[in-house]
Write a structure and sequence with these properties.
The chain is built from 4 helices and 2 strands, in the order H-E-H-H-H-E. It starts with a helix and ends with a strand. Strands 1-2 form a two-stranded antiparallel sheet. Helices cover 28% and strands 13% of the residues. The protein is an alpha+beta fold. The radius of gyration is 24 Å and the shape is elongated. The model has no long low-confidence stretch (mean pLDDT 76). It has 2 domains: 52 residues, no CATH class; 49 residues, no CATH class.
Length: 133
């Protein structure tokens, strides 16, 4: 093992019960973890790091909160501003509802084009393996 993350991944694969450390070890200090007896080796753990601008849970939370809390629609909320009412944008929807539509709807949706749900993008993949006993 070369680092704490690899050790934790391998331990999880082996069914070990882990206790979180109170503080991470210094970067140069390797971490080791015992594999339970009888575990078939070698073990390999693969980790994938994804980035997503906004998850469905977050976008749905914003939409639902705007509706549940009775947020006013955009034109009502900003009725005293210049160039109101809006003829584009949220108009008679809350900002949470509008954001959900931008996130949820397909780019070719006729009434409110969207951006395709910001799918997760794979940023990095890494694997670590144990040696055979």
């Amino acid at each position: 093992m070369t680092d704490l993350k690899s050790a934790l991944l391998l331990a999880a694969l082996a069914g070990a019960t882990l206790q979180p450390p109170t503080a991470p070890p210094p970067p140069a200090e390797p971490a080791t973890l015992a594999v339970p007896p009888g575990t078939v080796t070698p073990l390999t753990a693969t980790a994938r790091l994804y980035y997503q601008t906004a998850s469905n849970y977050y976008i749905e939370f914003l939409r639902d909160e705007a509706v549940n809390e009775g947020f006013p629609d955009e034109n009502a909320m900003c009725s005293g501003g210049p160039n109101r009412p809006f003829t584009v944008g949220p108009q008679s929807r809350t900002r949470g509802e509008y954001m959900y539509e931008l996130w949820n709807n397909a780019p070719d949706y006729t009434t409110q084009p969207g951006y395709g749900k910001s799918p997760p993008e794979l940023m990095q993949t890494s694997a670590a393996s144990t040696s055979t006993r």
